[in-house]
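Weekly modeling sync, notes
Attendees: AB, CL, MP (scribe)

Item 1: holo prediction request
CL wants a bound-state model with zinc ion before deciding which constructs to order. AB pointed out that an apo prediction alone won't tell us much about the pocket. Agreed to run with the ligand included and paste results into these notes for async review.

Input as submitted:
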Amino acid sequence: MSTKTITTTPFSDQKPGTSGLRKSVTVFQKPHYLENFVQSIFDSLEGVQGKTLVLGGDGRFFNRQAIQVILKMAAANGIGRILVGKGGIMSTPAASAIIRQYKAFGGIVLSASHNPGGPDGDFGIKYNITNGGPAPEKITDAIFAKSKVIDSYKIFETADINLDKLSIARIGEMAVEVIDPVEPYARLMESLFDFASIRKLLQSDFRICIDSMHAVTGTYAKDIFEKSLGAPAGTVQNGIPLEDFGGGHPDPNLVYAHDLVEVLFGDNAPDFGAASDGDGDRNMILGNHFFVTPSDSLAVLTANATLVPGYKDGLSGVARSMPTSEAVDRVAKKLGIDCYETPTGWKFFGNLLDADRATLCGEESFGTGSNHVREKDGLWAVLFWLNILAVTGKSVEEIVKDHWKIYGRNFYSRHDYEAVASEPAMELMDRLRSMTVELPGKQFGNYTVDYADDFSYTDPVDGSVSKKQGIRIGFTDGSRIVFRLSGTGTKGATLRVYIESYEPDASKHDVETQVGLKPLIDLAEEIALIRQFTQREEPTVIT
Ligand code: G1P
Ligand code: ZN
């Protein structure tokens, strides 16, 4: 039992500017690949010696092996204590909560979020800082720089730790505490929401169905909804976390969460349904035969926040990512609070939350959260909705339609062209970028371009500037089309087209989304020549 220094050669290919490393499992299994990245993390953390780190992941294939490696490397690198989730499990929001509650130095989170898992699936690793949020660019750039020049790593050679029993063990000088990954998180939820009212609702004839998609929230949802809130056994479906997510794609949208969609749009449908993704930070909310867009969800939570104990005193502000619909902007305006538009990616909310400029945040990509942690939080959003439903006694559909009556409806949809060839996709974006100068004032049928730009964001807290965050084309009637390339895809390029229109007239709200947006969808094609550049006749995923 001793520390070994192993010689290695650098080959890390982390994308600069991304908060972690996400690759296929087979890449992570290459000799020294994981170790290089982990050593680069430790080398980039000033003052981590003797401190506490949190460690856990979404339970996907390679999670357990990676945890054993990281524990041994942490011991060899002088870490004082590691809190690791039992079974190696920790949802991303729970990891954030645990880092904060234990005032840990930081944490290592293992997940490829909503990407498929298993031997042929994806794996990922990222570092979160003391506030519980993803490491800022300063740290990720340092990790990236290290990983390019690394020539050795340190690992303590010893037997594996038993991860399946709550215990305190030692590797060399370092303490390893195997902790319950659910309890601290469940306690936090209980402090924010009116559990008594939700319990009453769930024990009435109000029926809910939670789909954990065989991913990490199974462990959390069963404990919170069935055990603590008294929902009937079986309320949580696909609730056993599996290393390959049962072969599914653990992304809670209308396409991949089809099991849940069938239940909520089937005969005898329950009143409420929700799904979450691989690592538990995303959520999809459904009512009986009703889909709530994530953009509307953020707007509804904002409008009703004071009904929830944790937010009863109101919100300091709200923030949404640029492509997220402007529905929440209208609520913020009415409430007289600030609304921030940030680039895509949760990390941009961190400063606003830390500075208490925003209390709630959301992204159109099924991400919603608040200042209770520094990650988006799927089950938090579900509990927020249930709290609102319990207090108002309304159905999901009533809540949303009443909301539209007050604020108008933002029709919204995202069209993804996944795994298209990278070069033409970049050409499409370059072409649009060059068009932004000439587009304003141009007329396309009923639409007149109001503005066009490549979104640039100046962080109001630290002044940092993020450029080239996506092409926005705004029209004079409040409609928008946004184009950007995904930063998380692992194959080729993924083009995302976000389409939004605004309808104040309640008598026109009952139109099917894709029908309502058809003229703008056609306009997106006319302006961007999507078919020509992607060689695709239609999007892969429409949400
Ligand atoms: C996607 C989503 C984005 C989210 C990110 C991580 O990124 O669009 O909102 O923050 O996943 O969950 P993208 O692939 O679009 O870069
Ligand atoms: Zn996720």
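Recorded for review: The chain has three domains: 2-181, 185-404, 409-542.
Action items: CL to compare against the apo run; MP to circulate these notes.
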